[in-house]
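Model it.
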Amino acid sequence: MLAILLVEDDRDVREAVLGGLRAAGHKVTALGDGVAAIERLDTTVFDVVVTDVRLPRADGLAVLRRARESSPRTEVILMTSFATVSAAVTALRSGAHDYLTKPFEVDDLVRRVASLDEKLTLQRELAEARAQLAALQASPIVGASPSIQRLLERLATVAPSDAPVLVSGESGTGKELVARRIHALSGRRSGAFVAVNCAAFPEALLEAELFGHEKGAFTGASRRRDGRFKAADHGTLLLDEIAEMPLAAQAKLLRVLQEGVVEPLGTNDSVRVDVRVVSATHRDLKKRIGEGLFREDLYYRLNGVELRIPPLRERRGDLPLLLEHFLREFSPPGVAIPDVSVATWHALAAYPFPGNVREFAHAVRHAVVLARGGSISVDHLPEDIVRVARVPEESREIRTLAAVLKDCERDHILVALTRTDGKRGRAAELLGISRKNLWEKLRAHQISDSDLDD
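Modeled.
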């Protein structure tokens, strides 16, 4: 069974195709215009998108592009009444899996989808085998929320390529962690991973740091240095805080990316380098372009694929998992993992964590150190969190531990059902519970098939 998004504005055609696909056992969401389809693709991962080319508000090629951006593994079949070679070539070059010319027999489409189902099933089986082999190299990125699972899926797809990657996200979300994971899953894993913070060096020294310099190239250059690009040859270079790079350095960086050579300061010699560049920023680069602070041509060179890391406030259900992870990480070897009081959990759940995962990790380490192996209480937390916890109950909203854990459980069940294409038996096995227990939890959480479509 495949999760299929059908986009067709002709009601008769839509109903005919919908009936044929559902009769074949597929789970189909049907929409009538392009904008609605694009909005749904932003929130839901489908196995297949079947879309007309001519649609109201946004055409099928726009739907195709969004499907490729939001979920690279989603396959797209286009339908059109305008059978031209150029249209077919455009669709296939844009990443479409297949192309149907109207009028067509619904059975023909169902057969093509069945063939695609076999292909995707094989891909899933291979992916599961790879996941088992990669158990010794488990992801350091902790989270079971849908947003983190989508990030990990896209990361695993992008990493084996040599495409430049732009990692965006607020401070403390783990951009360097994502960059290191990209390197670890790439063909360059045996090479060096080199990170440089573009905001940490004065403008006069950043170019020397990146591209190298000869002895005497500037005041204080007492010896020759290769630079970070040379150090990352045949590996990966992370350009952190790329938005802070001065315009002069941006121009030189663009030339390096275009030509694959660097010129150390103080010499006209060119040194060829083979480097995959991953850049990271917490700023809006398009806004920086509009302000004249960042080169547009460089932006498109760096942004081969963008990976956005969600802030912690968008994945609150991951808090219990993160808490367990950091308690284990920061507890001394041989010492039992400390208990956390209910009041402490209330305080953590109520705090907004503007510093994201980095601030959360700091809070847990702070508490573990002060608790000295005992149970963690509110007073062991950093003062900022304690201050929020001490705000009078009537002036702030605070959720119970049971409510937070219930939300976490619901999110985790949805992840399991999504991974197993809605198959309850397989989902129960993944979750380590009986089918009856899963059925009871589905009823308690009011989870229905429509929740998997949203």
